[in-house]
Amino acid sequence: MSCSRENFLDIQPLGRFIPNTVEDYRLLLDNVNGQPVDGQTITQGFNEKHLLPFLVTDNIGIFEGQPVDANLRSAYLFAPQLYGPQQEDRAWQLYYQQIFLANVILDGLNSVTNGTTEEIEQLRAEARLHRAFAYFQLVNIYGVHYDPSSANSDLGVPLRLGIELENVDLTRNSVQEVYDFVTEEILSSIEALPNTVSPNFSFRPSKAAAWGLMSKVYLFQAQFDLALSAVSNALNLTDGLTDFNQIDAVDGVRNFPPVPQDQEIVWFKDSPSDAILFELTLTDELLSLFDNDDLRNEWLTLLTISDDIGERPIYNAGEDNQNFSDGINTPDLYLIRAECHARLNNIQQANDNLNRLRINRFATDGYAPVAINNAAALLNFIKEERRRELFKSSDRMFDIKRYNRFDNDNITLTHEIGGDEATLAPNSPNWAFPIGQLYINQNPEIIQNPRE
Description:
globular; 2 domains; mainly alpha
C-alpha cells in the first residue's frame, strides 16, 4: 500500500472481479487468508495480525543464534524509525488494506443486486467489525495509551471511511475519536450478527465476538463496569474451555486442537507468534511465572536448532501444532471478567472466574483453587495469569501500556541483542510506534510520533 496524496492505496483493489451480489461480498469477507478471488489476490486476509506489538514486551527475546530481520530488530530495540524512507510500514499497510476492503464492501452493499435485508445487514455488520478491529489495533500501535484527560488531543490514526483514492486528507484523528468510532461500529452492528458461529467459520464475526471486542475497548479505557457488562454478554453466548487433562502429551508437548476444533476460539485472528519458532525465545521472567504442576508448561518446549546453537524455550514446537489464534477467545474473556470484578471489589466473583479457567490448566487431582481476599494481591495475580495464559498474544504490549497509565506499575523494558541494548521507560512516547516515513513524505498532514 502506498499512501500518496494522488492515490491512497496505489492498487487496483478489485481488478476484473467486480462484486455485485451477496455471494460476491460473502466471498470477499471470507477471503481471510488473502487467497485469489476470481484469479486475483485482492488484499491481505481479514484474519491477519501484525508482529510489531509482539516484540515490545517482557515475554519475548530475540535469539541471537539466528539471523534477524532488520525491521524486527529495529522494533525490538525501540528505534526512532523502523523502516527506510522508501519502505512500506508493514503494520500500517496491513490494517489499512483491511480497512479499505471493508470500505469497498460497505459501499457496494448499498447497491447489491440480490439477497434479503437480513443477509445484507449481516454482511455489513461483519465488514464493520473487521474495520473496527483494524482501527483498534492501529490506535494502540501508533498512539499513546488512552487517557481520559488527554485523549481528545492525543494523536490517534486517520479515519478512512470511503473508497476515494485521490485528494484524501490523512490528518490523524485523536485517540478519543478513534475509540468513539470503534465503539459505534461495534454497538451498531451487534444485532445483525448471529449469536455464535461454528468452529469451521470462526474467522467470521458474531455477537459473541462483537461483545468480546467491545469488552476490550472498554477495558482499555478503564471503564470497568461497561467492560464487565460486555464481557458477560459474550460469555453468556459462548463459554467453552479446553481441559488440558483431555489432551495427550506427546514427547512432553501438549498441542492445541486444530482451529476448526478449538472451542475456545470466539473470533479467529492469526497470531504473529509463529515467528518465534525461528527468531524469538521466551524470557526467564515469563518462564518463572509457571508453577511446576501447571500443564501450560507443556506449551513450552526446548527446540534444538543445531548442535552449535543449542536449546531454547519456545512456544509449543510440536510438529502437529498449527493453532496460532490471537483474536477473541474465551480464556481472555474470563480474565477480563476476573479483572473487572477485582477492580470493582467483587472479590469472590473474581476468584470464581480465575478458577473457572485455571482448573482446566492443572492436573485435576492436584488443583488448589485460588482464594485471594486482598484486592491488590488479587489484581496482581490476575495480571500474572494474563501473562501465563496469553503470552503468545500481542496484547501484552497493550496491557503494559494500560498498567503503566492507570495503575502506575512502572514497567520498564530492557532489550539487548548483539551487544546493543535499549530501554523503554514507563509512559515513554516510544510506546507509540513511529509511522513509516514514506507516508509522511507523501502526506505531510500526517504528524509523526515524537521519539526520545
